[in-house]
Write a structure and sequence with these properties.
The chain has about 425 residues and is an alpha/beta fold. It has 4 domains: about 5-35 and about 180-330, 3-Layer(aba) Sandwich (Molybdenum Cofactor Biosythetic Enzyme, Chain A), CATH 3.40.980; about 40-60 and about 145-180, Molybdopterin biosynthesis moea protein, domain 2 (Alpha-Beta Complex); about 65-140, Molybdopterin biosynthesis moeA protein, domain 3, CATH 2.170.190; about 340-410, MoeA, C-terminal, domain IV (Beta-clip). Helix content is about 20%, strand content about 30%. It is built from 8 helices and 28 strands. It has helices at about 5-10, 20-35, 165-170, 210-220, 235-250, 270-275, 315-330, 380-385; strands at about 20, 40, 50, 55, 65, 70-75, 80-85, 100-105, 115-120, 125, 130-135, 140, 155, 175-180, 185-190, 195, 205, 230-235, 255, 280, 285, 295-300, 305-310, 340-345, 355-365, 370, 390-395, 405-410. The strands form 8 sheets. Strands 18-15-19-23-22-20 form a 6-stranded mixed beta sheet, sandwiched between helices. Helix 1 (about 5-10) crosses helix 6 and helix 2 (about 20-35) packs across helix 7. The longest helix is centred in the last third of the chain and has 19 residues, at about 315-330. The two termini are about 45 Å apart.
Length: about 425
């Protein structure tokens, strides 16, 4: 198909919008069907990836009886004759005689034959050098398998790898993990009216999405290199096709900003047609942000890549990120579909007719309530800068004080655990 023919074909009437919850489901399934291949990563390089197979124990945890305290491993009744010392990292000989003891360090292997451990601070020495005291009734050591038995599944496939998981894997004896790699993403910024520096004016506005979207994508687990952010791309069909083709050469996901409608300089649809893309979702019944889309391209070798068309208005673009990009990336990484927590509305939120309304809110976590924010227009960023997420107001409803509604959390900073 020629570029001109593709452009003509793309100018047909827009399809009926997909219901918001259905759109999330579609893009997640599309991502899961194209889940990234599994690779082996050393523990030091696994942070931010996703388990491609369950994490199971390779040995009992702990693997041997381990002292929980500094003290004395004793056999029988006291006072006890000191016959040695046990430090962590050594295999001690057994205690074979009642009335004997060895000094033991926290984390050291408990000698076979021990009947109790006496804490160092609760012991005394007799005149002839023996150890006296009363061990506590509860055992002061960890039994083999107390935390987990060999072969037990600790975490399922699809779990994000974080420092806690890495530490657990190391304790199980892993040197590397089988993971799905982080998706690589690129961003194309469309719009001749955009400035990349300086003050807006004379009909031109600052590009707010070029600096912001890569940071959102990283919070969703993507790799985005500086060279992967391109724009503003000229408002011509040939420039759009060339930019998309270049970005798709290396990226698993290309996000674009603007051009998702069918105006005189909206070239995304005809560019996708020229590249042979098919739509997973083409417009969503949600406000703000309804002219969002997700398209899929399949190479001759079966490699699948995606293009997420984000509206040009900044808040609408973020709505598209949480609505389409977040579920897609979860699928690509083999993670579960992001579940939506619930919150109680502290103030009313109007509905949007037959569209889902995603309303910016701030969470009061102590009270479990969501508070709508001002400055929430689709072109505004002030409200978004103070928001924790979006309250979901279902089609044909409005949100009243006290209603329990789903909320879509915004991704947290890299130093915080993802919701």
């Amino acid at each position: 198909m020629s570029t001109e023919t593709a452009a003509t074909a793309a100018q047909v009437a827009a399809p009926s919008p997909v219901e918001w919850a259905e759109a999330r489901s579609r893009v997640y399934e599309a991502g899961l069907a194209a889940a990234l291949p599994a690779v082996d990563r050393p523990l030091a390089d696994a942070d931010g990836h996703t388990l491609a197979e369950p994490l199971t124990t390779r040995t009992d945890l702990p693997a041997f009886p381990t002292s929980s305290v500094d003290g004395w491993a004793v056999r029988g009744d006291g006072p006890w004759q000191v016959v040695g010392r046990v430090l962590a990292g050594h295999t001690p000989p057994p205690l074979t005689s009642d009335g004997s003891t060895v000094e033991i360090a926290t984390g050291a292997m408990v000698p076979a034959g021990s009947t109790a451990i006496l804490r160092i601070e609760e012991s005394t020495r007799t005149a002839d050098g023996r150890v006296a005291g009363t061990p506590r009734p509860m055992a002061e050591w960890r039994e083999p398998g107390e935390e987990a038995y060999a072969g037990e599944e600790l975490l399922p496939a699809g779990t994000p790898v974080d420092p806690a998981l890495i530490g657990l894997a190391a304790s199980c004896g892993y040197d590397s993990l089988r993971v799905r790699r982080q998706p690589r993403a690129a961003l194309l910024v469309f719009g001749d009216e955009l400035l990349t520096s300086g003050l807006p004016g004379a009909g031109r506005v600052r590009d707010a999405l070029g600096p912001a979207v890569p940071a959102w994508l990283r919070r969703y687990g993507c790799q985005v290199h500086p060279a992967d952010v391109v724009g503003p791309v000229a408002d011509t069909l040939s420039a759009h096709v060339a930019a998309l083709r270049g970005a798709l050469a290396d990226a698993d996901l290309v996000c674009t900003t603007g051009g998702t409608m069918h105006g005189p300089v909206d070239h995304l649809h005809p560019a996708l047609a020229a590249l042979g893309a098919d739509y997973v979702v083409n417009t969503v019944a949600v406000r703000p942000g309804f002219p969002m889309l997700l398209a899929r391209l399949v190479d001759g070798d079966g490699r699948v890549r995606f293009v997420a068309g984000l509206p040009g208005n900044p808040q609408s673009a973020v709505v598209a990120l949480v609505s389409l990009v977040a579920p897609l990336l979860a699928g690509l990484q083999g993670r579960p579909m992001p579940m939506l927590p619930q919150a109680t509305l502290a103030e009313p939120i109007p509905g949007r007719g037959d569209h889902t309304h995603l309303a910016l809110v701030r969470f009061d976590r102590a009270a479990g309530t969501a508070h709508p924010l001002r400055h929430a227009g689709s072109a505004m960023l002030r409200g978004l800068a103070g928001a924790d997420g979006f309250a979901v107001i279902r089609p044909g409803t409005s949100g009243e004080v006290g209603d329990r509604v789903p909320v879509v959390p915004l991704p947290l900073s890299p130093g915080e655990r993802a919701q």
